[in-house]
Amino acid sequence: MKPACLTRNPDGRRTLRFGMAAAVCICTLTACDSGSGGGSSADGGQRAAGGGITTVAKADRVPAPQLSGKTLDGATLDVGTAYRGKIVVLNVWSSWCGPCRGEAKNLAEVSRQLHSRGVRFVGINTGDPTAGTALSFEKERGVPYPSLHDPAGKLLLRFPRGSLNPQAIPSTVVVDRDGRIAARAAGGVSVAQLRTMLDPLTARK
């Protein structure tokens, strides 16, 4: 498979474009679409936390977009409704992406560790034209949570401008219990990175 990134057509519409270098598995979306408006700067309360992680102060967080659709196994999922009041980890991935293969076990591990603390994981599979290939990827790696099938990247375009929107495949975005975007990691994530983003949100006060 070939890596994909968002590009703008002459009429102004953004669609998914498949690149030529299949070896490049992380594609920075802002490099392909300078009009996306997202950024990883420290503006608007955003702060680089190290290790490829950016966080947002609670007072400066913006609402996550409405994310819903069919999962890879054909079920219907509305993230905001199903996981209201939960911390939600959104992982953008593709089956052809090397870093996605490497991070899958880490995501699965932390999803099990923190389930009892109100953390729910949801994948957003993009760039895989058919759900079957992506579903096989999840089954082979023991992924215990659902993934929305978003082959054309339409769900990614719903993230608000200037927010911690997904800017690479893979990307991981954390949404707090109030439904607001709290943190983002670009590229494949380790267990330590996931805990860095999640532990402050799950800490009992």
Number-wise, the strands total 11
> What count of structural domains?
1
Largest sheet, strands/sense/barrel: 7 strands, mixed
Number of helices: 5
Based on Cα principal axes, name the global outline: globular
And the CATH topology? Glutaredoxin
Order of helices and strands: EEHEEEEHEHEHEEEH
Which CATH top level class fits? Alpha Beta
Strand content: 25-35%
Mean pLDDT: 83
Give helix % range: 10-25%
Order of neighbouring strands in the sheet with most strands? 3-4-11-10-7-8-9
Low-confidence stretches: 1-43
The CATH architecture can be named as 3-Layer(aba) Sandwich
**What would CATH call the homologous superfamily?**
Glutaredoxin
Rg: 16 Å
The helix-and-strand class reads alpha+beta
Spatial separation of the terminal alpha carbons: 46 Å
Explain this structure to me?
By secondary structure, the chain is of the alpha+beta class. The strands form 3 sheets. The protein has a 7-stranded mixed sheet with strand order 3-4-11-10-7-8-9, covered by helices on one side. It has 5 helices and 11 strands; from the N terminus they run ββαββββαβαβαβββα. Mean pLDDT is 83; it is low at 1-43. Strand 1 (4-8) and strand 2 (14-18) form a beta hairpin. It has a single domain (4-202), classed as 3-Layer(aba) Sandwich (Glutaredoxin), CATH 3.40.30.10. The longest helix has 16 residues, at 98-113.
